[in-house]
Specification:
The protein is an alpha+beta fold. It has two domains: 26-132, Defensin A-like (2-Layer Sandwich); 152-202, OB fold (Dihydrolipoamide Acetyltransferase, E2P) (Beta Barrel), CATH 2.40.50.140. It is 22% helix and 33% strand. It has helices at 5-15, 45-51, 56-67, 86-100; strands at residues 33-36, 39-42, 71-74, 77-81, 111-116, 119-124, 130-132, 152-160, 166-170, 173-177, 185-194, 197-202. Strands 8-9-10-12-11 form a five-stranded mixed barrel. A four-stranded antiparallel β-sheet has the order 1-2-4-3, covered by helices on one side. It has a three-stranded antiparallel β-sheet with strand order 5-6-7, with no helix packed on it. α3 packs across α4. It starts with a helix and ends with a strand.
Length: 205
C-alpha cells in the first residue's frame, strides 16, 4: 500500500515551513549595506523583517527614529539618507527585537504584537505570557563623525603652533591649518586625519 501513514505525516511535516524557533535561537540575517552616493542602501531589509516576523513599515519607522535619519522602503530594500554603518543597523535591529519580539518570560521570539486601548501588547505563543511593549524614551541618534577627510568645516583658530600653523579644535580633534592667525574664523578642508590630529588647508571656494 506504499508508504505508511506515519511516513506520509513525517514527509508532510518536513515540507512545512519551520517556525521561527524550535528551541534554538532564531537566525537574523546580517545587514547588507552598500553606499550609493549620499545614501546608504540596506539591501536585505525584507529578509530581516521576515526572519523576525514583523511588519516592514513598523520596523522601518523604528529604525529611522532610532538612527535619527530619513529613509524609504523600495521593494526589498531600504534607502537611508546619509551614511549609516552595518553596526548601527545591527544595534538598532537588536534593540527592536529586545523590545518588540523576544518574550521576557521564556526568551523565545514566538510572539505577536496586538493593540489594546492604543497600548502595544506582546503575546507569546510559546508560553502564553503577555506584556506591554516598553518604549525606549531616549532616542539613540546616529553618531556622526565630528570630522571626516575630504569635508569642509568652519572653525576658529585658537592657537598657533611652533611651525606657525594655526591650531583649531573640533570635538576631540586638533586641526593644524597653515597660513592662519589666532582668532580667525576660517573654512578648513580636511586633508588627513591621524588619530585625533587632523591636517587641512583654508577652503577658498
Amino acid at each position: 500500500m506504499g508508504q505508511s501513514y506515519e511516513a506520509l505525516l513525517q514527509r508532510a511535516k518536513g515540507a512545512m515551513p519551520k517556525p521561527i524557533t524550535s528551541g534554538e535561537r532564531f537566525q537574523i540575517p546580517d545587514a547588507e549595506l552598500i553606499s550609493e552616493g549620499k545614501t546608504t542602501v540596506l539591501r536585505n531589509f525584507i529578509d530581516i523583517t521576515t526572519a523576525i516576523n514583523r511588519e516592514p513599515n513598523q520596523v522601518l519607522q523604528y529604525l529611522l527614529r532610532e538612527l535619527g535619519t530619513a529613509g524609504s522602503l523600495e521593494e526589498r530594500r531600504v534607502v537611508f539618507k546619509g551614511k549609516v554603518t552595518a553596526q548601527q543597523v545591527a544595534d538598532r535591529v537588536k534593540s527592536y527585537i529586545d523590545t518588540y519580539v523576544t518574550c521576557s518570560e521564556c526568551g523565545r521570539p514566538d510572539t505577536r504584537l496586538v493593540k489594546e486601548d492604543r497600548v502595544a501588547i506582546l503575546e507569546c505563543d510559546a508560553c502564553g505570557a503577555r506584556r506591554p511593549v516598553k518604549m525606549v524614551k531616549k532616542t539613540a541618534k546616529v553618531e556622526e563623525a565630528a570630522l571626516e577627510e575630504g569635508k569642509v568645516y568652519e572653525v576658529m583658530i585658537q592657537d598657533v603652533g611652533k611651525k606657525g600653523d594655526g591650531i583649531a579644535k573640533k570635538d576631540k580633534y586638533i586641526i593644524y591649518i597653515p597660513g592662519t592667525a589666532k582668532g580667525q574664523i576660517v573654512k578648513v578642508f580636511i586633508e588627513k586625519i591621524a588619530g585625533t590630529v587632523a591636517f587641512g588647508h583654508i577652503n577658498r571656494e
